[in-house]
Amino acid sequence: MHRDEALEKLEDKNLPLEEVKEIFETFQNDMEVVGMVAMNLSLRTSVYDREKGKSPIMTELLVALSEVPDMGSRWAVAKNPHTPAQILQKLARDEVNLVRALVATNPNTPTECLYDFYEDEKIVRDGISGNPNAPAELLEKLAADSDKLVRLRVAENPATPKEVLQKLAEDVDKDVSKAAQIRLEEEA
């Protein structure tokens, strides 16, 4: 298969995963093709339907993509809901803060990584605030963050405990307090 043909085929998110794997194996040293493989896998998944696109081949490709030097590919692996926990643990130590930030948002990220991220850069801490599997203890700490967007994501997070929402409902920022009040009304 010619490189241009491979790139064109990868634009189809319904391309059989067997073909995606074959293209990856054929062009694994071509970072443009590798990036398109990562993009193809991203297009197959949904944050709303976590089972969509799940398969052994998907997992195998995500593991392989986690090893490539292309940051965009690792970024796609970090946010993918099918990425295995052990790969997320490895990417939690990535030198690129955006990769770590996306690992922090991934519901499959092990809890111990989320605790480690609390001491990381702001962009990485921001990721924890929207993670639906973030521990209540971390969400409580993040509810006191100086950054209004972090507090807003904590207020919107379905995992945030009622007591934390009650504190956020009194937040000095109108958007944060309104989001917390809406969540409290939904739970009532």
Which features characterize this protein?
2 domains; 13 helices; 188 residues; mainly alpha
Can I get a quick summary?
This protein has 188 residues and is mostly helical. The protein has two domains: 1-83, no CATH class; 110-188.
List the helices and strands and how they pair.
Blueprint: H1 3-10, H2 17-26, H3 31-44, H4 56-65, H5 71-79, H6 85-91, H7 97-105, H8 111-117, H9 122-129, H10 136-142, H11 148-156, H12 162-168, H13 174-187
Could you give the count of β-strands? 0
Form type: elongated
Biggest sheet descriptor: none
- Spans of at least 5 consecutive residues with low confidence: none
Query: How many helices in DSSP terms?
Result: 13
Query: What's the overall average pLDDT, rounded?
Result: 92
Question: How many discrete structural domains?
Answer: 2
Q: What is the H-and-E element order?
A: HHHHHHHHHHHHH
- The radius of gyration is 19 Å
Decide which structural class fits the backbone: mainly alpha
First-residue to last-residue Cα separation: 59 Å
Oligomer: single chain
User: Helix content range of the residues, please?
Assistant: 55-70%
